[in-house]
Each structure stands twice: as structure tokens, then as C-alpha cells.
Amino acid sequence: ASEAERRLSSSIEAKPHCFPNIDRDLPLP
Questions:
Q1: Which residues of the chain, if any, have pLDDT below 50?
Q2: Which intervals of the chain are annotated as region Disordered (predicted)?
Q3: CB of 12 closer than 8 Å to CB of 19
């Protein structure tokens, strides 16, 4: 995974309720 994907995964793990439907197609900025 790329650095951005790893950081996003960490954010999702920290706040799963903020990302209820994200799975694979992530809208990265």
C-alpha cells in the first residue's frame, strides 16, 4: 500500500464511524 493508503487506513481504524461505507475505491484528495 502507498503512504496515503496507509495513513487513510489508520484514520479509518481510528474513526470507523466516519467511514461506514469505504472499502476499496477511496476518494483520495
A1: none
A2: 1-29
A3: yes
